[in-house]
Every structure is written in structure tokens, then in C-alpha cells.
Design goal:
By secondary structure, the protein is mainly β. It has strands spanning about 5, 10, 20-25, 30-40, 45-50, 55-60, 65-70, 75-80, 90-100, 105-110, 110-115. The protein is built from no helices and 11 strands.
Length: about 120
């Protein structure tokens, strides 16, 4: 059974930092791209960042320079380091794994809440 389990969310003040973790199990994830998405209340789910097994990463413009995705292939774990957090970063953050050649093969985590508020 494939599982993606996120952790690390919480409440943080503006300007603060959090690190999210997502650990995958149940299959060989080497051909999978690992990504973080987020969904704010009343908005569509959006891509935040993605990382391949080979170390290629991408970050959307709204988080570029503030968030960093990193992947530990040996641990089947992907991280999202979030610095300089803003209230508009408040959302449920989801981990996703999708096959690089067959993107319809995908798995999602259950999500973790990140709230940025003073």
C-alpha cells in the first residue's frame, strides 16, 4: 500500500519559518517526481515546488527565494523549508508523488495545515 505522510505544519507568526516533511512508502519512488501543493480556503490547489530523483527542483514565483524543496532519496522523504512566511502562505499543504513518465500514476498525502498569523 502506497502512503505519503506529511508532518511539520502549525501556527507561525509572519516572518517565521517552518519545515514540512513528507515520507513515502509502499513502492519504488525513484521514477517519481515529488512535489508540494497547497490549497487556501476558497481557492484551487496550486503547485508550490517539485523535485526529481536527480536533484532538479522548481519553485513557483510566489515562493521563490523563500521556500526550498529538498529530497532525500535514501529516506524516500521530501522536505519544504519555508522561510519569511506571509499570511497569504496560509493553506493546507499536500505532498504529491507522480511518475515522471506516466503522470496519471499519482499519490497524495493527507495534508498538513500551515497558518501564518500574528
Amino acid at each position: 500500500q502506497v502512503q505519503l505522510v506529511e508532518s511539520g505544519g502549525g501556527l507561525v507568526q509572519p516572518g517565521g519559518s517552518l519545515r514540512l516533511s513528507c515520507t513515502a512508502s509502499g513502492t519504488d519512488f525513484s521514477p517519481f517526481v515529488m512535489a508540494w501543493y497547497r490549497q487556501a480556503p476558497g481557492k484551487q490547489r496550486e503547485l508550490v515546488a517539485a523535485a526529481t530523483t536527480g536533484g532538479t527542483t522548481n519553485h513557483v514565483d510566489s515562493v521563490y527565494g523563500r521556500f526550498t524543496i529538498a529530497r532525500d532519496n535514501a529516506k524516500n522523504t521530501v522536505y519544504l523549508q519555508m522561510n519569511s512566511l506571509k499570511p497569504e502562505d496560509t493553506a493546507v499543504y499536500y505532498c504529491k508523488a507522480f511518475h515522471r513518465n506516466y503522470p496519471s500514476i499519482e499519490y497524495w498525502g493527507q495534508g498538513t495545515q500551515v497558518t501564518v498569523s500574528s
